[in-house]
TrEMBL record:
Keyword Metal-binding: yes
Keywords from the UniProt entry: Iron, Metal-binding, Monooxygenase, Oxidoreductase
InterPro entries for this protein: Cyt_P450 (IPR001128), Cyt_P450_B (IPR002397), Cyt_P450_sf (IPR036396)
Organism this protein belongs to: Thalictrum thalictroides
Biological processes per GO annotation: secondary metabolite biosynthetic process; sterol metabolic process
UniProt name for this protein: Beta-amyrin 28-monooxygenase
Record keyword Oxidoreductase present: yes
Length: 93
């Protein structure tokens, strides 16, 4: 079942069921030379994060083994997949 779960996570990474979501900033941040004040909502696009090669090496490659080590998954992405999308809580091996 562990391999099946990894396959499911990789499929969701490649083809996210939700295009985007809003997040509220917790503090003032600067991004791309612009100041985003605390409390503003920003649009988070799942595909842009999931295809970012600084987070997922070879992002276009289907590779369920990238989820073998849960500590290597960025915490927000793990939360989004297991809690926000599935509403089943955080998955643990």
């Amino acid at each position: 079942m562990k391999y099946t779960w990894r396959v499911a996570l990789e499929i969701l990474r490649l083809v996210p069921p939700a295009f985007a979501g809003f997040r509220r900033t917790q503090k003032d941040i600067e991004f791309g030379g612009y100041l985003i004040p605390k409390g503003w909502q920003v649009l988070w696009v799942a595909h842009m994060t999931h295809m970012n090669d600084s987070m997922f090496p070879e992002p276009s490659k289907f590779d369920p083994s990238r989820f073998e080590n849960q500590t290597s998954i960025p915490p927000l992405l793990l939360w989004c997949r297991t809690t926000y999308l599935f509403r089943i809580g955080v998955y643990k091996d």
